[in-house]
Amino acid sequence: LISAKLVQVGNNMPSSPDSSSDSSAGSPHHTFDGPNIEAENCLPGVIMANTAKYAKFMFQLSDLGCSLQVPKLRDTARTLLKLMPADSHTVDRLCNICNENTRSDTTLSQQLEIMFFNSSPTEALYNIEVAYSLLMPANDPMSEDAFKFQYNYVKSGGVQLALNMLTKNNFLPTADLPTRRSAYVTVMKICKIMLTTVLNAKLQVVIDACNADPQSPNVTQQEHSHAVLIQQALQFIPNQQSEIMTKNVAMRLGQHLTDQALLFIPNQQSEIMTKNVAMRLGQHLTDQ
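-> structure tokens emitted (288 positions)
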């Protein structure tokens, strides 16, 4: 791998003190130092990311490798997708769907579900990975832009959708084993964010009720017992050291959902889905 840097060379280079008495110390200012958006937009990866047909072609190429059982073709196409920036069409579509769904009364966006329950295994995997990168961007998961997508994603049914990907049989029905493994790794990461957010929101509801009326809080004994268990669990999940950013994002998002009175999974449905997830994962581990 060869790295190169474009440097402007001319007569304005500072001369040494031996050759000129009035020369000044210091290096010249190069016009190519620092970010150059115009130059970056000419990079092959950026050009591919800004044109939807290239990502589509990679999806088809990878799916062909899956169907023909040619791992090198499948993995090479996916490696190219990882090397280039996120496909701008996919990013815009995810953001627009989540943003528009916040204005509707539906709890689960059908358009968002279609993106993850896609007929193309590679495209479904890619959409999941892009969604996770928007939920937990590498530069700053606590930024306002990231928080806006996190909130809109939850309000668009992100919690229910994460559980559906773990429990429904029509998720990646034609995918091969490596594709399923890659998808479930990212799905589990999304589930950790979503479920930790719900736990923080549920805990905050009980705390607020107890603080409002300590003598006679508006919570049942069962709800209080659940809140105690949640509080104990949140001391260890997510990991306090290696997943501190996930914890901070979930706490912030859970607090905001509590303020907005938005809890998207009723208690009964939540318990049923938790049971289904446990049964599905247990069966999968048994099969493996």
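The mean pLDDT is 82.
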